[in-house]
Amino acid sequence: MWRLDARIPTELPAKVYRMGPEPDFITSATIRELSLSSALLDRKLPEDSGPLLLQFNLPDNREMRLQGHTVKLRHRPLKGTAIELLAMDGDQGEQMWTFLRQRILPNSRCPYCACGLGRDARAPRCPDGNCGLKNGVCKLCGHRLDFDADHYLAEHLNDTMARRLQAKLRLISPDRVRKILQLVDAELLKSVTPDRDMEFVGTHPDMLKVFSLIRRVAPTGLNVLILGESGTGKELTARAIHERSERRGRPFVVINCAAIPEGLLEAELFGYTRGAFTGAYQNQDGKFVQADGGTIFLDEIGDLPFGLQAKLLRFLEDRVVERIGEKKGRAVDVRVLAATNCDLEERIRRDQFRQDLFFRLNGFTITLPPLRDRGEDVVLIARYLLQKHRPNNPDAPTSFSPAAIEALRRHNWPGNVRELINRVRRAMIMATEGVIEPADLELADAGGPLVATDLRAQVDLTEREMILAALRENGGNVARTARSLGISRPALYDRFRKYDIDPRQLKNRSH
Ligand SMILES: Nc1ncnc2c1ncn2[C@@H]1O[C@H](COP(=O)(O)OP(=O)(O)OP(=O)(O)O)[C@@H](O)[C@H]1O
Ligand SMILES: [Mg+2]
Predict the structure, then answer these.
(1) What DSSP element (H or E) covers 134?
(2) pLDDT tens across 112-150, in order?
(3) Ligand 1 within 6 A of 341 CB?
(4) Do 197 and 154 have their domain in common?
(5) What residues flank ion ligand 2 with Cβ within 5 A?
(6) Is 344 inside a domain boundary?
(7) For residue 263, what are the domain limits?
(8) The domain that contains 377 carries what CATH number?
(9) Which of 172, 287, 313, 511 has the smallest number of Cβ neighbours within 10 A?
C-alpha cells in the first residue's frame, strides 16, 4: 500500500508534550521526516504514550501545534519514534502543505510510492517496468504529482479520504465504529432530505439509532409502526422513510385517524360511490387510491374505530380498495406507515385493538424517545430552530442566555419537539435585548413561577388551563370534552397541537 502523504526529510527542532488539561512537557527532539499525516522524531518515546502534542516552528517562524500519537515503526531499522498526526484544521494544513510542497519538488521519485519518474536511474522500477509520469499522474500508484495545481491539497485529501478512514477505523473498537457509522447514517439522512422543514436534528445515541433504523428500513418496503409521545417527530420519521425509499417523488398521504369523525373516516380512507350514503353526490376516491404508488401515513392508528380495523386488515392482506357502495375492488400499490402515541398492546389486551392488525402493521418498529430523555439535543434543536426561523431583522434574537439554556434543560417537555418549536418561536417575538431569556420561553427561571408577559399569552394560558380542566373532568374523553367546551372535535385537536396537550396523558392522572 502506498503512502497517503508525501514525506520530506527535515531537521526541524520540536518539543513533545503529553496532552491533558495542561500539556505536560516530555522531551525536545528533531523532526527527521515530516508529512501531513506523520512525523519521524530522532528520539525514542515509549510506544503508546497516549495523545501527544508536537510543537515546532516552520522556517517562516509560524508555530505549529499538532496532535497525534505514537505508532510502531514497521520495516524500519531507524531509531526514533513515528508519530501519526491527527487531521489538521484548514489553516494549519495549508501552512504545512506550503512548506512541504517546496521540498517535494526537486525529488525525482514519486513521493507516494517511491517509483522512479525517469530522472533517477537508481530509483526502483515497478514490476512491469512501466514507471513514470503521465499527465501529471504517477503511473504506478495513480497519485497526482502536479503539486502546484490549484486546490491540489483539497483534492488529494478527498481522493484519499476512504483510505484514511479505513486506516483510522482499524485503531478503534468495533462498537465505536458502529457509532461512527450511525453518525454517517444521520448525515446521509440529511443529505436526501430536500425540504429544510424536514431536517431531523439530534446527536443523542438513541436518536442516532433512530436515524440508522430509518435508513435501513426505508428501501425495504416493509410496513413500519412508529411509536412515540406526541410531538416527538413521528410524522417527520414517516416522511424521512418515504423520502429515502424508491417511492419518493410519488404521493405521501397523511391521514389522522383521531381527528376525523368516525363516520367520515371510512369514506376518507376508502372512498365512496355516488349515492352510497346521504350526501354522497359523486364518486370519490379515498386516501389509499390517492397514495397509489406512494406511501400512506396512518397517524394515531390506535384511535382507528374497531369496525374499520377489520377493513384495514383486509386491505393490508390483499391490497385491494373497496369504495363504500361498491363491491368491485381496485388494486393499489401503497406502502403503509402507521404511528401512535398510545400503548397498542394495552389496547389489544382490552379488546380495543385487533391483534392481527397490530401484527400486520408492525413489520418493523421505530420508537422515538421523548425529548426529555435526549439530553443536550434540547439545546441543539432550540439553537437550530433559532437559526432556521430567524427573520432578516437585525433586532431579532441571536442566542439564548445561559439562564434560558438552563431552563431548556430543566423543563420536562410534555409536548416534546412541537412544544419546543412553539416556545422558541414565541420567544423570538418576545425577546427584547437580542438574547432569549427564560421568561421569553415562558419557562421558569431557577424554579420561579410561570408568568405570562402580555395579554395574548395570558389568554393562551387561560385557554390551555380550561381545556386541561375539561379534559380532566371528562376522563380524557375528547368527544365529551369538545362538547363541554362548545367547540368541535377537530377544533379541539387544533388546540391540543397549539398547547402541546396529550389527552391520553390525562386519562389516568392529572396534568
Ligand atoms: N429531531 C427533530 N429535529 C427538528 N425538528 C423536529 C425534530 N423532531 C420533530 N421535529 C419537528 O417537530 C414538529 C413535530 O413533529 P411531528 O409532527 O413529526 O411529531 P409527531 O410525533 O407526529 O407529533 P404528534 O403526535 O403531535 O402528531 C414538526 O414540525 C417536526 O418537523
Ligand atoms: Mg403526528
Answers:
(1) strand 133-134
(2) 887 777 655 555 555 556 667 777 788 778 888 888 887
(3) yes
(4) no
(5) 234-235, 299
(6) yes
(7) 190-367
(8) 1.10.8.60
(9) 172
Q: What is the pTM of this model?
A: 0.59
Which bound ligand lies closest to the C-alpha atom of 505?
1
DSSP 312-355: HHHHHHH-EE--BT-SS-EE---EEEEEESS-HHHHHHTTSS-H
Q: Is the Cβ atom of 481 under 6 angstroms away from ligand 1?
A: no
**Predicted pLDDT at 159:** 82
What is the CATH number for 272? 3.40.50.300
Ligand 1 atom nearest to CA at 377: 1
Question: Which of 101, 13, 99, 98 has its CA nearest to residue 57?
Answer: 13
The residue among 27 and 140 whose pLDDT is bigger is 27
> Chain-centre distance of CA 91, in angstroms?
28
Query: Hey, whose CA ends up nearest to atom 18 of ligand 1?
Result: 233
| Nearest ligand atom owner, CA of 235 | 1
Is residue 235 in contact with ligand 1, taking CB distance under 6 Å? yes
Position in ligand 1 atom list of the atom nearest CA 235: 18
Q: Which atom of ligand 1 is nearest to the CA of 237?
A: 18
Is the CB–ligand 1 distance for residue 200 below 6 Å? yes
Rounded to an integer, what distance in angstroms lies between the CA atom of residue 140 and that of residue 241? 44
231 lines ligand 1 (CB under 6 A): yes
pLDDT for residue 239: 95
Residue with CA nearest ligand 1 atom 9? 233
Q: Hey, what's the cell of 146? A: 502536479
| Together in a domain, 221 and 317 | yes
| Range 407-444 burial, b when 16+ CB lie within 10 A, else e | bbeebebbbbbbbbbbbbebbbebbeeeebbbbbbbbe
Is the model's pLDDT at 14 over the cut of 60? yes
Is the C-beta atom of 230 inside 6 A of ligand 1? yes
- Chain position carrying cell 392522572: 509
Residue 113 placed within a domain: no
409, 425, 451: which is the final residue of a domain? Answer: 451
Task: Determine the atom of ligand 1 nearest the C-alpha atom of 200.
Answer: 3
Q: What's the domain count of the chain?
A: 4
403-430 pLDDT, tens per residue?
999 999 999 999 999 999 999 999 998 8
264 and 359 share a domain?
Answer: yes
Residue 172 is assigned to a structural domain of this protein: no
Q: How far apart are CA 82 and CA 184, in angstroms?
A: 30
